[in-house]
Amino acid sequence: MSSLNDPIAATTGRWWEHAVVYQVYPRSFADADGDGVGDLAGVTDRLPYLRDLGVDAVWLSPFYRSPQHDHGYDVADYHDVDPLFGELADADAMLARAHELGLKVIVDLVPNHTSDEHRWFQAALAAAPGSPERARYLFREGRGPGGDEPPNNWASVFGGAAWTRVEEADGTPGQWYLHLFDSTQPDLDWRNPEVGDMFVEVLRFWLDRGVDGFRVDVAHGLVKEESLRDQELAEGELPDSESVNSAATASMVERTLRDEPMWDQPEVHDVYRRWHDVLAEYDGDRMTVAEAWTQTPGSMADFVRPDEMSQAFNFAFLLAPWDAAAFAEVVTGSTEAVGRVGALPTWVLSNHDVVRHVTRYGGGALGLDRARAATLAMLALPGSAYLYQGEELGLEQVEVAPEHRQDPSWFRTGEVGRDGCRVPVPWSGTAPPYGFGAGAGQPWLPQPDDWAGVTVEAQLGDPGSTLTFYQAALAARREHALGLPDAVEAGTDGDVLRVRRGDLLVVLNCGDAPAELPAGEVLVSSGPLDGVLPPATSAWLRV
Ligand code: GLC
Asked: Rounded to whole angstroms, how far apart are CA atoms 75 and 539?
């Protein structure tokens, strides 16, 4: 054991502190009306499956009214459901059914930008430069002769410049507006108090309907450095478009921080202090979780100070390579960082933006063994864990043919994009759509022909299946890990990660050879043990 970590966080009994949250990507989860796109009624139908899986809460990616250029992360109306997914009554029915089953519901909030079809942006386009309508967004004059160059050198995360020029009412080329993502996602100006007030209304709208929490999209991006100055890129550093979230991919060791005038500005925390107070007015421990790709564990922890958000995604775990020392470093570093502000960590291995972890770990049988092993180790850690739909089936990243790709980053960069982790879930049957939709209509992204063996139907009740393993792992968490002290000690023994929490010892073999299985009672393992700890296998032992 090489490191000791003793977080100061005290368990207070708030439901989310040790919750396992299952992420639903509504387009791809279940399609009740058979139009090829998942919907809220489909989610409601499948909630008993999630209860039986053994999760505590569901987080749904956006289902608000949206032209769907970024599949709902471009919101045109925060107070309504997109007809593709149903209507407000379907959201209410989903919430009611979830609560009846004992599941909490977290909705996605997208405050960094609106859709270009939002009434505010439409009004801004129709209004003149300098108008209050334009002041809700970041409109600026261009640089160079005729203002033909963008106002600064920022790149869009999805590729190309982060600025698009508009045509003014008289038909002449006009101002530019900032969009850190697609050009259909204009960034709001959070220094304008109108913007903050509007989002407090949005929070209240959904809190009043009974949601239990919010996953906050691009939580580190809302406020930009006021000057909107150029980003200074050191030699070898890439703009965002070529290194999506590259800052977070760096190891947790000391490093030179990248200059990022568009991300993680100190004023962003004022937003979350205000939201904290709004949520505190409601009963039931309503919560927030930040999607904040920060550069250091310390800046991640800033989002979960006692008067700010409840949780922040710990992307360092997801980004760690398949290496015992790297995992140990992340467990220790991130737990210590949030412990310093009295918070608990979170853990996540897959979501709708990243390559599925089976594939990241090498794919095929080896990738699956490693993914199961990493998941089981994750579920022993203090704090809360996030699962992404389909990982409980062991799904791999799908190679989506170019003609079917829909991710805006594909259109802006020609890079493959994120469609491969968004292919609709296979529920039953032996051919597409595998029970995803009513009838035989084909889903919005084609499913592979060889998924008959990985459907929910095929895996339920099969003792060797990944689904059965997830059910067992979640049951083991409830039985053996909840209630353990939050202090965790992580280290390595050769290629084996060893994590100690109370009387629970977790071992994860990241090497290529079998390792010795420590003495103790084996509580659960990610694969067969045969008296040793085989490669790509993890186990929990009571010691
Ligand atoms: C977040 C979302 C991602 C979306 C982006 C812009 O990173 O997770 O899916 O494309 O924000 O809203």
From this structure: 43
